[in-house]
Amino acid sequence: MPFVSVRITRDGVTSEQKAQVIAEITETLERVLKKDPHLTHIVIEEVDTDNWGYAGITTTQYRKQLAEEEGKP
Length: 73
Hints:
Elements: E1 3-9, H1 15-33, E2 41-47, E3 53-54, E4 57-58, H2 59-71
Parallel strand pairs: 1-2
Antiparallel strand pairs: 3-4
């Protein structure tokens, strides 16, 4: 029974996009590993950007910095 956990930031991902991710991961496991789709479980966890960090800052802070840099001439 395959179990796949996908973590993404919570920022505008639609239900349709999540459904597509689930379908395509399931199809890949069936095609490549011959896993039964009826026994395949996919979980998508959405994490607030204040709770996801890298390079010493939160994703919220990082995106704010990017936006400020892109706004400069």
